[in-house]
Structure formats: structure tokens, C-alpha cells
Amino acid sequence: MCGSKLTNKLVEHTVGDVVTLNIYEAKTRLSALVRRAALGEEIVIACDGRPMARLVPLARLKKQRVLGEDRGMIWVAPDFDETPVEMTDARLASPLLPSDDSPVANLPTRKPRRTKKRAKRPAR
């Protein structure tokens, strides 16, 4: 029978960071257990020695973001979107297509896959 005083003689059992209590003891000390859970402790409530429920802290809500909160902390250079001259020169110096004597032009090309034609099923 879950919750009888005779079967709930185990007051508190700790394994690692997890505290296990039987239901009778948990009912008796619920306020203190809630405070402990709010501080980050995990508490398991058992019935006849079998774990039945877990008392854990609620996840904290994230602070809502405020637009403009970082104003004045970020700086962007006036020429951030201009292409450097070195890159422009290199791009203009290289051809768009490889010439016939380049190593890329001599690579083998991949043949297209041939697909099998399905045989038509006879009409029923």
C-alpha cells in the first residue's frame, strides 16, 4: 500500500546529486523540498521504494530582447562592401573557361547514366 507510515520508514536516500524520499516523508516536508528543488536540487519521490515522480526546478525564462540595446557598441567600416583591388585583378586575369592546354581541360568527362526502360504491364 503506497503511502502508509509502516512502509515509508526510509527518510532520505541520496545517490549522487539526486535525493530520493518516500511519499509520506515528501508530503510532510513538501515546502522544504520545493525550496531545495528551486535551488537546483533534483528530488525523486518514491512509493514503496519505487521511484514515481521527480521534483525539479523550472527552467528560467529568457530575458526578452530589447531592440537597440547594443547601440554604439558595434562599428562597421564605411567600405565593408567594396571588393579589394587584389581580388578584382585576380578575377580579371583568370579566364572564365579553361584553355585547351590547361590540366582541367584534359580531365575525363562523366558519361550520363543509362536508365532501364520498364516493361509495360499487360492490361487486365
Structural features, described:
Helix content is 19%, strand content 16%. The chain is of the alpha+beta class and 124 residues long. A four-stranded mixed beta sheet has the order 1-2-3-4. β3 (42-47) and β4 (50-55) form a beta hairpin. The model is unreliable at 5-10 (pLDDT under 50).
User: How are helices and strands ordered from N to C?
Assistant: EEHHEEH
The counted number of beta strands is: 4
Low confidence ranges: 5-10
Q: What is the CATH topology classification name of one domain?
A: YefM-like fold
Structural class of the helix and strand makeup?
A: alpha+beta
Per the principal axes of the C-alpha atoms, what is the gross shape? flat
Strand order, sheet with most strands: 1-2-3-4
Task: Please identify the oligomeric state.
Answer: single chain
- Beta content: 15-25%
Characteristic terms for this protein:
124 residues, alpha+beta, YefM-like fold, four-stranded mixed beta sheet, 4 strands
What's a quick, concise take on this entry?
Residues 5-10 have low confidence and may be disordered. Helices cover 19% and strands 16% of the residues.
SSE topology sketch:
Blueprint: E1 13-15, E2 18-22, H1 23-28, H2 30-38, E3 42-47, E4 50-55, H3 85-93
Parallel strand pairs: 2-3
Antiparallel strand pairs: 1-2, 3-4
